[in-house]
Amino acid sequence: MAAAEPTYDRTDSNSRPLPTVQPLYHHKLVNCPGMSIIGVLVKFPPNGVSPPHRHGGASVSACLLQGTLHNKMNDDPMYTVQQGGTWLEKPGCHHKISANVSATEPATILATFVIETEKMEREGHAILVQVDEEYRDLVFPEPEGNML
Hints:
Layout: E1 20-28, E2 35-44, E3 49-50, E4 53-54, E5 59-66, E6 69-73, E7 79-81, E8 86-89, E9 95-100, E10 107-116, H1 117-123, E11 130-131, H2 136-139
Antiparallel strand pairs: 1-2, 2-10, 3-9, 4-11, 5-8, 5-10, 6-7, 6-9
């Protein structure tokens, strides 16, 4: 039996806490002129979930370092990622579900972004996580629209 798809509930933002994002590195890629690579740790508390989002045209490679997550991109079926599992988000990907399966244990992702250097210099880290419009007011009391 397939697991029910978790949702980010607008009516109870405390029911599923947000992850925290810790920047690790940011380097210009000398072998790919005009591109930068950025690494972040995304830490999901127990029962944590991120609202639907995109990544500003970046390619994102992710590895689940700890825990188990439900994942859903675009209109593909939701799937479960176990510790050590990886995935790739292509530019323009709509990350609809990213949810910690456990109500008692944390989950941690190492996410590596490859993005145009000019875009990063112009828009800053805000470009990396763009929360869907209908959820921004819950995630950000200020009208910023990003998780970094």
